[in-house]
Amino acid sequence: MKTKILTILSNSDGYVSGQQLCEQLGVSRTAVWKVINRLKEEGYLIDSVSNKGYRLLSQPDVVTSEAILSKLQTNYMGRQVFSYDEVTSTNTVAKQLADEGKEEGTLIVSDKQIQGKGRRGRYWESPKGSGIFMTVILKPKMKPVYASMLTLVAALALNDAITDLTGLEAKIKWPNDVVVNKKKVAGILTELSAEVDYINYIVVGIGVNVSMKDFPEELKDKATSLLLESGKSIGRAQLIAKTMEYLECYYERFLKTHDLSELKETYSKVLINKDQVVRILTEDDSYTGVARGITDEGHLIVEKDNHDLVEVYSGEVSVRGLYSYT
Q1: What start and end residues bound the annotated signal peptide (predicted)?
Q2: Domain spanning 2-58: which CATH class is it, in words?
Q3: Is position 176 annotated in a ligand binding site?
Q4: 184 assigned binding-site residue
């Protein structure tokens, strides 16, 4: 009931009478009053006026299930939320829940991670109250070979959500880092559980630097936050909800073809690598070229100095002027 009351108040521009809440929810005035008081205790500023009702004036920057669900406008993505104060990592929890049979679209969110990680096992800084640490469970009916493309789908959804809510010109560094002003604000880590010919589940972990004000010396020229770049506070629950909306839309389009053919043009428009000099670093080789976009399978197309076109499947990609690469 708390989620429903919070949703009603969040979507109202004025006061909502106690009687309206009672009729919509089928509960007593006492029950409504108790929920309102609990919300106030959690930091929600709610004005109560006799004969007028209740009005939500402000809300705390929390990532509880109630806060997220009250802003969510999806059919299934993020509709079941497990929220925590602290976890090892949301991907770890998501895999446990997926093994237990939780449905597609289930969302795991934590206020803090103590063992957060990024690609290639790198540590992801996850301080309390200043970032988004979330993982969504997906169960696409397709062959495991197509799973890696979902990382790009998630990056596109997150990039659009950030742009919508902050007004910043967010871009994607292939394949899945979201950057603002050439510094990283978000990353994605996708993990797969599969058999030879089918997928059990995929967990898509997303980390966003929302309100961090400072970074370690070694990261200051590589990382930033939405607060530092926009100069304003961004509600984490709102950003989570908006990301789920975009993800549901792009995921459905991806499932039609099991590739990025329907999303390639949209992705290319926000690809910071496009038509830029990139340095490709692999275990066996390194070379420079110009990025020309992505294939239907999400591979980066690079034009080498001799004008040969190659597809980059994996490895590190550096862009001149980005992440201190010069």
Answers
A1: none
A2: mainly alpha
A3: no
A4: yes
Helix/strand/coil for 187: strand
Binding site annotation covers 274? Answer: no
Phi-psi region of 231 (alpha: psi -120 to 50; beta: other; left: phi over 0): left
On whether 91 is known to bind a ligand per the annotation, the reply is yes
* pLDDT at residue 126 in the model: 60
277-319: in CATH 3.40.50.2300: no
Place 326 in a pLDDT band, splitting at 50, 70 and 90: very low
Using CA atoms, how far apart are residues 257 and 155, in angstroms rounded to an integer?
18
8 A C-beta contact, residue 287 and residue 300? no
**What residue type is 132 in one-letter code?**
I
Cis before 175 (ω within 30):
yes
What is the residue whose two structure tokens read 């109560």? 48
- Is 89 one of the annotated binding-site residues? yes
What DSSP letter does each residue of 8-25 carry, written as one string?
Answer: HHHT-SS-B-HHHHHHHH
Report percent pLDDT > 90 for the chain: 77
Structure-block tokens of residue 263: 């999303």
Q: How far apart are CA 191 and CA 187, in angstroms?
A: 13
Q: If you average pLDDT over every residue of the chain, what do you get?
A: 91
Sole residue written with tokens 């169960």? 139
pTM beyond 0.70: yes
